[in-house]
Structures are given as C-alpha cells and as structure tokens.
Amino acid sequence: MKLTLSYISIFLLVATLTSCNNSKKSDYATQNDIEEQTIYTASNHPGKKLLENQCYLCHNPNANIEGRIAPPMVAVKSHYLNDDISQKEFADAIWNFVEKPTEKKSKMRGAVRRFNLMPYQVFKEEDIRLIADYMYEFKIDEPEWFKKHIEEESKGKVKYLNDGAKLNDTLISNHQTPEEKGLQYALSTKKELGKNLMGTIQKKGIKEAVTFCNVKAILLQIAWQ
C-alpha cells in the first residue's frame, strides 16, 4: 500500500512540474491568437516561456555536458529542422514524438542511447506547437560547446541549425519586474527538483524514484524555503 501511494506521489509530482503553469491560461496566447497576429519578437513570443518552463527542466542549455540528463533543445532543433521543412511540418514532427515517445519515432538515436528514451509525460498539443513555432522562428539558447560537439559527433551527418532572430538577453534582464524575478527564482527550484526526479527515473527506475520522492525531494524543498 505504501509503495502504491509512493507511485501516485511520483505521478503527481511529474504532472505538477510539467503542467503547473497551464492554469494561468492568460499568460500564453492560444494557437488562434498566433494566427491572428502577424509579428512576434523573441522576447514576447508565448512559446519562449513555455520552452523555459516545460522543456528546460531536463533540456537546460546551461547544464554542463557531463551532468546532462537530456540533450539541449538546440540539439532537438538541429535534428528536426532542415532547409526544406515548413513551420507546420516542423511542429508536426515535434508533436508526433512528444505525444507518445518511442525509439522508432525518434530522430535522435544517439541521444536515446546516451540518455534513454524520453519518459512519457502529459503535454498540451497547443503548448508544444507554440514551443515548436518559437524554435522555428527564433535563435534559441545553446551551450558554448554545442556547435563543435554536433559537428564532431555526427561526422557531418547532422548540420548545426539554430537559425532565427536572436534575443537580447541583457536588455530583457535589466527590465525584469520584481514579480518576474520572483517567478524566475521559483522556476529554478522547480527545475532542479524536476531534473533530479527525471534523472532518477531514467537512470535507476521507478523504485529509486520512490525513495527520491520520500526523502530527497522533501529535503530540496526545505533547503529552498
């Protein structure tokens, strides 16, 4: 009975980490809103916040290469983007995999071998398409080592692709409101907790994740209070 409750705790924690922002629907534009507007900048596109809040949990561009639990999102972009693909086709391909990840669907076989298959999670199709639209239209954050790494690892089979408008991070940072700074601190706690949980599930399985939920997650939350 205790083990069953622990499994439920893991499910609720993962669901909270990946979808806790969905309740604030006013923070993000809907797909219809995207179609009605003609111009988005790298800083105000709704896919940017979704990318940071839902994807950087595991695909953080700032994580070092040795301690990663998943490839950076720029690697996903480079594998799924090509010179001939349309924005809709790119979004379709991303959603096709995220909806129900399988090795057969994956275009990143090397990442699957290194990190294992991405665990199934519940995402809104609308959110994933907004994220894909943002990735397609704009240059996204990437690790300093990534360009050289992908060219060497793929031996020319995968092109480095991170096209699009570039975000002026310094300008945006200087204009953060106290509320935005508070949200940033809160999200950093959520990302650290989620990264540890997802890493435990991928590397050690559900039973070890039960231990994580019962002990380590609680300690981490206390440390950030």
TrEMBL record:
Domain Cytochrome c as annotated: residue spans: 42-139
InterPro entries: Cyt_c-like_dom, Cyt_c-like_dom_sf
Keyword set includes Cytoplasm: no
Taxonomy, superkingdom: Bacteria
Keyword line: Heme, Iron, Metal-binding
One MF term in the entry's GO annotations: metal ion binding
Protein name listed in UniProt: Cytochrome c family protein
Native source species: Nonlabens ulvanivorans (Persicivirga ulvanivorans)
